[in-house]
Amino acid sequence: MLPTLDQLTIFFGAVALVALSIYTILKCREDSVEHLGDTELFLFLGKTRAYSFASNLGSVFSVTYFFGAAFIYGLIFKGTLLIITTIVFIILFWLIPRIMTSSWPHNLHSTDQRGNILLDLLLRRLGHQSFQVVCRIYSFIYFALLVEELSVSRLILHTLFPAHASVAAALLVTICFVILAYVHFGGFRAILISDFEQLKILVPFMVVLIFLMLKDSTMRQGIPAFSVPHIGNIPGLIFAVLFGVAWFSSAVDFYSRLNFKSPASGGLLAAKKSFARVSLAATYALLVAGIAFGQHLVTIMPRVESPSAYTSIAMHYFLAQKSRLVIFIFFLAIFCMLFTTINTLLMTLLQTGFYYKSRLLRRDRLLQVFLAASILSCSIPFDAVSAVGIYFGSLLILPFASIIHALHHRSRIFPRNVLYLLWALPISAVLFAILFSRLELDFERHFQIPGLVAVAVMTTLVEARKSETCRRSME
What we know:
Distance between the termini: 71 Å
CATH architecture: Orthogonal Bundle
Low-confidence stretches: none
Helix content: over 70%
Structural class: mainly alpha
Number of domains: 1
Number of helices: 18
Order of helices and strands: HHHHHHHHHHHHHHHHHH
Shape: globular
Number of strands: 0
Largest sheet: none
Strand content: under 5%
């Protein structure tokens, strides 16, 4: 049983959440209303580096991929996950600046902030038809991730308020209303402002995590440390690295945050590269902290039985703290994590939809998109959210393949277009559906899920290459 949240904590937490929401809406409206008439500025206009940096950090905090994945897989894989994360970011430190260099000077020299560096690169290198395919794949993935994030939100609220269903429903409605309101008022710039404001709660939450680790370690007469990793599953390690590299390097929202104000000078590319590296370093530090806390949880949770069981035990740990301040910060941080993730996914859907002129992914239909995702999220069982989330995230291997294709567009390794990715998507879905019952609650095998997508991509790539070779020989 979870410790019961007393009425006073619930009241002040809800008041603080509503107050922060109203303040964020007013800030977004005041700062961004003049740009509503220009669709490109609405979708892509940034602010300063500080806001972009705060938004990059805010995107790391997610109930799915921080409170969920970093904690859970840190608990399960311990030091091995630290090795995986380190390898991923070493690759990213090399790869992302290369992607930015490939975009120069076609996008980065401009300071009007009317586009996305990554999407512009793919459009120029892949051609119109292939680019349309990639954008539609992106839209499917980000919509699926939105559905999964809303499913996790349901699980969190269900666990947090088991005896207060009306309070949980009211807070969820508040979150949805606030997000839709400030996105309507300010577009992408509002996302940056919102993440900047949410980070004022999430930074104290990180301090709380560190404090709890040190306090519990002192009580056990020890210091927090990573266990010695045991690497016995090399394919799983490779697939986990592939997952991480694909997740970060193909993230449309990361490249949109490079649209901060900067003087148009010869050092613009260097400045943006430097910003990207600093953001990656900060992201790495946050993930390491999350993994460390996940390993710390092994003292109260020897193993993870299911997502719902993990959520209940993790909630119990925080809510059982004697300090009401710790509980209050945790309460607000959970909701801030919902804000920063959901708003980013919604805006990324609008950005990709803009690039291929989608009739559905538009600002005037944002409410319908959100409602559709909310309804579909109810179809995902609580104990399926981890495996489903890893699969949806693994699908970013598809656009990652298109990025590699774009960087080596003159290479004979790749076919002329990326239509083969359209076949890789349903093939990976079939493989995942077949193996789902074996993978759902076997967390140690979750990193095999990216392997299913990788196999689908490689199979369709080889077949596409063979078909193209045959056509050329016949000509």
